[in-house]
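Possible regression after last week's pipeline update?

I re-ran a chain I had predicted before the update to compare outputs. Posting the input and the new output here so someone can diff against the archived version. Not blocking, just want to make sure nothing changed silently.
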Amino acid sequence: MRYALYPGCALHGTSRDYGSSLLAACRALDIELETIPGWTCCGATPAHMVSDLLSVSLPAANLAKADAMGLDVLLPCAACYNRLAVARERLHAEPTLRAQVEQALGQPVAAAQKTLHPLSVIDSAEVARRVTRPLSRVRAVAYYGCLLTRPASVSIDANVVNPTVMDELMSACGVQMLDWPLKTECCGATLTMGRREAAVRLTARILQCAQAVGADCVVTACPLCQSNLDVRQDQVARLLGTPMNMPVVFFTEVLALALGVDAARLDLDRHIVSAVHLAGAR
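New output (post-update):
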């Protein structure tokens, strides 16, 4: 399998560990990734608050680059996935908008290639066959966040209320996946910029629930969710009046470890709450 990789801004900065573990896991699974040359920011969540045309044009510029490559687009970041998938859907459904976007960009945009998330591409059964280091001592909850199942038309899982695709992949890695009710709840995300107290309360609810069901860690696929849940734990501890020390890791880190990738290649030491011990959890 070969895909056009749209890394997005986070995988080159705050979520470099997501990028390194994704590349390592894909190599182990014989999935070829070719980075879209000259990719640009998708606008993430702020663009659509400023201009509807901008919110579609920014992703469309990258969709056009993928069209030129003739490859389906792989989008690891939940925000990037959401914006490009929604933009592609709208370009096909709204001809007037499409004409406006093409005029803004000065080029046609076929948006012919599929927009895919790694969780939709990586086959759990194939992973189970290739696992060399099952993480059977790890007890985890899968946290999908807001953007991977909303809107339903671009959801990575047919069940938008109780998605299981990440749970199944982690189970294939040997992880004990725990049931919990906050899989798709918002963590506060960009509220941290303007309403930090609200973001801390939302984050606290998620971390407290994960702790209550007995999880050793939270597994996610969203750079913003991972950062928020990881960085805010001191603030959460003060809010709750109880210690909070919950590792928040990317599913690709768990996947790469289970596939036998050397932990030294995975940037596990970049987490605020250490996740290095997962490398020895077998």
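Follow-up from reviewer: compared with the archived run. The chain has a mean pLDDT of 95. Marking as no regression found.
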